[in-house]
Give the backbone structure.
Amino acid sequence: MIKSKRQFPDFRHFYSLIDWSRPTLSRRKSATNRAQTIADLATAAKKRVPKVVFDFVEGSALDERAMEYSKAAFRNVEFNSRTLRDVSIVDPSEEIFGKRVDLPILFAPTGYTRLMHHVGEPAVASAAAANNMIYIFSTMSTTSPDELAAKVPNVRRWFQLYIMQNKDDSLAIIKQAKESGFEALVLTVDTPVSGLRLRDFRNGLTIPPRIRLSTVFAIARKPIWWLNLFTTKKLEFAAFRGWDKSLVELAAKIFSPAITFDDVEWLRQTWDGPIIVKGIQNVEDAKKLASMGVEGIVLSNHGGRQLDRGPVPLEILPEILNAVGKRMDVYIDGGVMSGQDAYAAVALGAKGVLIGRAYLYGVMADGERGVAKAIEILRREFVNTMALSGNRNLAEVRQTGARFRNL
């Protein structure tokens, strides 16, 4: 029988194997550092914020089928792959309106961000700026456009707009966007009325949160979140200061059930920069917008938060690209929860994807550091998939392509 030859321990070798890092007493920071996926950030986020806040981010409309279908569509994509290619240098950057961004991933407009973390929209914009990405700022933000521009002046920022029932309100917000250096408008058109978000109804969500008996128990369970709420400036909608009713009532005031293509034409006469229309769900609407000279569209089901069981953006992407892809930029959102999801959309031809929940899990988990971690995760997964499928840039990704397994 062969045996190992024993020797006196080599302490220098033993010491070289030690890889100790300075311990942290912050469970929040520790959870962020350990996160390997967006799902890990979601788990950390759920421990940091009250149920009403987490449900607002994670929830969708009615039976929440639209979000389920969107995620299933991404799982159903199979990547084409090429081997024996030099992938020692992989470049995931994309040119958007004449400037390069480091990833074909944009931050979708999500309102009420200070509800998720007390720093709010500037925390997200700062992470976007540090990673040369585009941040789309929501009309329903809890920071004003000029405040964001002052705090994070170097971020590429687009402004998301609703055509409101009172056009003068829309004009006032467009004026703020112009004066604050926003380079493009993202017109959201899938909200003629608000979707029926049952989680928010059951939780009685308002901005700011009302103090009820159930709130007392929520404070006991999430004291740090509530301490941050009480010790920072009043939580309110920057564009609607003083509003203290439910989100449903606010949506009824803002969203216009009378919006038409005429409003898009009105906006083209009002705004002299790029216009992207978000919420497109069929080919004919895409063709009409292309004929009007709109620079881009976002195929979107609003993250499943409006029309439940509506069209799945990823599944209609090839058909719409075939119709208008040479005339405008086509982006998608809804259900993008990994770098591989983003890769799937780009491989099928999209200019890029918008992420919402993915970065909100990060901001709930750990503020700006959590958003930066979400970007790190998405970038690593995206670049790894590029290399493993034999693609060195996004042009090659689109050329190599992908396919649906069983549609």
Q: What stands out?
A: The mean pLDDT is 91.
